[in-house]
Amino acid sequence: MKRIGVLTSGGDAPGMNAAVRAVVRKGIYHGLEVWGIRRGYAGLIDGEIYRLGLRSVADVIQRGGTFLRTARSQEFMTEEGRKKAVEVLNRFGIDGLITIGGDGTFRGAMELNRLGVKVIGVPGTIDNDLAGTDYTIGFDSAVDTVVDAINKIRDTAASHERVFIIEVMGRYSGEIALTAGLAGGAESILIPEIPYDPQEVCDRLKESYEKGKKHSIIIVAEGVASAQRVADDIRSLSGFDTRITVLGHLQRGGTPSSFDRNLASRLSAAAVEALLAGKSNYMTGIQGSEIKLVPFEEAINKKKKINTELLELAQILAR
Ligand code: F6P
Question: Can you give the pTM of this predicted structure?
Answer without folding.
Answer: 0.97
